[in-house]
Amino acid sequence: MSSVREVLRRIEGAYSLVFMSSKHPGMLIAAKQDNPLVIGIGDGENFIASDIPAIIQRTRRTYILNDGELAVLTKDSIKITNRQGEPVTKKVFEVNWNAEAAEKGGYEHFMLKEIHEQPKAVVTP
């Protein structure tokens, strides 16, 4: 975990990252900054994805990570901390919509969704 924290201290910009190590098989560490990252809560399995539609067929129980949070996952546990290693208490977000509705983001058509997403997709320095 200290290696992951050191990497995060050194990098800049937007990212969603997942770390794994042969020294800790069966464990994944996820971190994010300015990009989406979702943790899916399963029964004897847990998931990491960039958005809910990617995991909705497997689980509807999720944690939505905030910037600066890290999640340590095994098949049976999820622990979320801040970058300093202090525990973070998260509420489970229960997904109550289907994958097709999610992909449209609440818009009637995909084109409308893309039009409304343009300001977020284009950033000027």
Question: Could you walk me through the main structural features you see in this protein, from its secondary elements to its overall organization?
Answer:
With 125 residues, the chain is an alpha+beta fold. It folds into 2 domains: 2-94, Glutamine Phosphoribosylpyrophosphate, subunit 1, domain 1 (4-Layer Sandwich), CATH 3.60.20; 99-125, no CATH class. The chain is built from 3 helices and 8 strands. It has helices at 2-10, 99-104, 110-121, and strands at 15-19, 28-33, 38-41, 46-49, 61-64, 69-73, 78-82, 93-94. The strands form 2 sheets. It has a 4-stranded antiparallel beta sheet, with no helix packed on it. Strands 4-3-5-8 form a 4-stranded antiparallel beta sheet, with no helix packed on it. A hairpin with a 4-residue loop joins β6 (69-73) and β7. It is globular, with a radius of gyration of 16 Å.
Short description:
The protein is of the alpha+beta class and 125 residues long.
Offer a few descriptive terms.
125 residues, alpha+beta, Glutamine Phosphoribosylpyrophosphate, subunit 1, domain 1, 2 domains, 4-stranded antiparallel sheet, globular
Using the alpha-carbon principal axes, give the shape.
Answer: globular
The CATH topology of the largest domain is: Glutamine Phosphoribosylpyrophosphate, subunit 1, domain 1
User: What is the percent of helical residues?
Assistant: 10-25%
CATH architecture of the largest domain: 4-Layer Sandwich
For the largest sheet, list the strands in their spatial order: 1-2-6-7
Number of helical regions:
3
| Broad structural category | alpha+beta
Mean pLDDT equals 87
Number of domains: 2
Q: What is the gyration radius calculated from CA atoms? A: 16 Å
Order of helices and strands: HEEEEEEEEHH
Q: Per DSSP, what share of the residues sits in E-state strands of 2 or more residues?
A: 25-35%
Largest sheet: 4 strands, antiparallel
